[in-house]
């Protein structure tokens, strides 16, 4: 195994580099302070076409398939607003990945643009980064795990929550991500009481929320997408759309148009 001295990214958990094994190049995630046992245990169980492929690893490192050129954040940054078709193609792939994980009793806990990788050869979407993930039978776990702006209201405070209830939190985060794809911005700047847009959602004033979301946009988002977002970021987790309900509402997608759009970004 030859580690190529190209750092692709660094976070609080580890450093991502390229590694050559034989004639193939993979991604190497080196954990800091040997803190990767939990992520290794979870990632090694996952095998799905829309999840970053695990190759080998342990509590010190994980080797996975190499995904180039970008994560989804870079595509949205380039596009500004994704088309409805592209947004729905991406959403469908992520729902399938989450549905697979949830059926295994695993929650992701940090759904965001930066944790979604895009295969530059076919633009297939791959969910990655499982350092915050856990099993739903882990009992009481801390809230406030994830990324600000994506957190569901039920975990956006200090305290504990039953891990079983984190399934709906993944869906809320996915709803925020879907909004960003369609609008090019976050639905709200903060989830504090000072945020007018977030307060509109809390008070169920959706017509006002959509007006202020779209008033400066030349490209309007159709009503069926708005209803989908509303159902995913619903404040009450028990009334939030399920993954199956999301799939039913996505509608038809055109994969050729999706690839053509992504290839131009």
From TrEMBL:
Domain Protein kinase stretches: 2-259
InterPro entries: Prot_kinase_dom (IPR000719), Ser/Thr_kinase_AS (IPR008271)
GO cellular component: cytoplasm; nucleus
Domain of life: Eukaryota
One GO-annotated biological process of the protein: mitotic DNA damage checkpoint signaling
Single GO MF descriptor: protein serine/threonine kinase activity
Family matches, as Pfam families: Pkinase
PANTHER family: OVARIAN-SPECIFIC SERINE/THREONINE-PROTEIN KINASE LOK-RELATED, SERINE_THREONINE-PROTEIN KINASE CHK2
Protein name: Protein kinase domain-containing protein
Originating species: Paramecium sonneborni
Biological classification of the source: Eukaryota, Sar, Alveolata, Ciliophora, Intramacronucleata
């Amino acid at each position: 195994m030859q580690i190529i001295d190209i750092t692709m990214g660094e976070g609080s958990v580890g450093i991502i580099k390229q590694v050559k094994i034989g004639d193939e190049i993979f991604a190497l995630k080196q954990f800091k302070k040997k803190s990767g046992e939990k992520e290794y245990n979870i990632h090694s169980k996952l095998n799905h076409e829309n999840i970053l492929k695990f190759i080998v690893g342990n509590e010190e490192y994980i080797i996975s398939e190499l995904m180039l050129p970008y994560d989804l954040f870079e595509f949205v940054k380039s596009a500004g607003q994704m088309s409805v078709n592209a947004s729905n193609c991406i959403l469908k792939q992520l729902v399938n990945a989450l549905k697979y994980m949830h059926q295994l009793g695993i929650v992701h806990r940090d759904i965001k643009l930066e944790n979604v990788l895009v295969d530059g050869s076919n633009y297939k979407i791959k969910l990655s980064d499982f350092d915050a993930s856990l099993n739903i039978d882990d009992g009481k776990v801390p809230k406030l795990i994830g990324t600000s702006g994506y957190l569901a209201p039920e975990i956006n405070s200090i305290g504990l929550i039953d891990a079983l209830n984190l399934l709906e939190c993944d869906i809320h985060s996915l709803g925020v991500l879907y909004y960003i794809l369609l609008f090019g911005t976050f639905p709200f700047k903060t989830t504090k009481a000072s945020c007018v847009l977030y307060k509109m959602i809390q008070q169920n004033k959706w017509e006002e929320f959509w007006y202020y979301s779209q008033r400066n946009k030349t490209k309007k988002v159709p009503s069926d997408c708005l209803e989908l977002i509303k159902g995913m970021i619903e404040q009450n987790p028990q009334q939030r759309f399920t993954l199956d309900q999301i799939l039913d509402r996505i509608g038809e997608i055109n994969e050729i148009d999706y690839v053509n759009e992504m290839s131009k970004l």
